[in-house]
Design brief:
Length: 209
């Protein structure tokens, strides 16, 4: 299961790989809503495996959640839903896909985190999917799940559309993946302008050898 968000016009992040200016014109009625945090915490409660990717992205996320709620700028110190997410992500079995990350980079999550190298990617993900257990959740990691999508390894896309127009940035999808999308469900939250759309991707063309 992939969970990501996008702007109304389909962007994942700004061209400088931040969210700068995405929320310049965010409607004041939605400024304090926690719908995206609540939904991703809900997904993680139902999962027993979390997949992340990229050394830089992984380290930034790890450092944020390890220090939460004592992250600079969090006054008052954190929110209840993010504190729960921080505890869940610490305890959940994690796999980080990276060719450059080293074992010492995993601390203090070394007991719950394993490394998948690129050469082993598809076989490792297929093996994880074949195991008995609960959901496998993949968060962020846009380039990774775009790749897994065309190898028929993604079962559900959970896309949260934020009520903002970016105008430019990095698109959520890479090129035009040869998939059809079957809508499984939609959802909104009171006090939030977010719209969740859950799709089943169906591969339409075989993966080139």
């Amino acid at each position: 299961m992939v969970s990501n968000f996008q702007t109304l016009d389909g962007y994942y992040e700004s061209t400088n790989k931040t969210f700068d200016r995405f929320f310049d014109y965010f409607h004041e009625d939605y400024g304090a809503n926690e719908a995206f945090d609540e939904y991703n915490t809900e997904l993680l409660r139902g999962a027993d495996t979390l997949i992340l990717s990229g050394r830089t992205s992984f380290l930034a996320n790890k450092n944020y959640w390890v220090s939460y709620p004592n992250t600079p700028g969090d006054i008052p110190p954190g929110t209840a839903i993010r504190r729960e997410f921080a505890e869940l992500i610490r305890a959940t079995e994690k796999y980080v896909v990276s060719n450059t990350i080293a074992a010492e980079d995993l601390a203090p999550w070394q007991d719950t985190t394993r490394i998948i190298r690129g050469a082993d990617l598809y076989a490792e993900i297929a093996a994880l999917k074949a195991r008995p257990g609960r959901d496998i959740l993949l968060q962020l990691s846009r380039q990774l799940w775009n790749d897994l999508l065309v190898h028929d390894l993604v079962d559900e896309l959970h896309l949260t559309i934020f009520p903002v127009i970016a105008g430019e940035g990095i698109p959520l999808f890479t090129a035009r993946p040869p998939v059809s999308l079957k809508l499984l469900s939609t959802r909104t939250w009171a006090g939030s302008g977010n719209i969740l759309a859950v799709y089943q991707p169906i591969l339409r063309e075989p993966v080139p050898e």
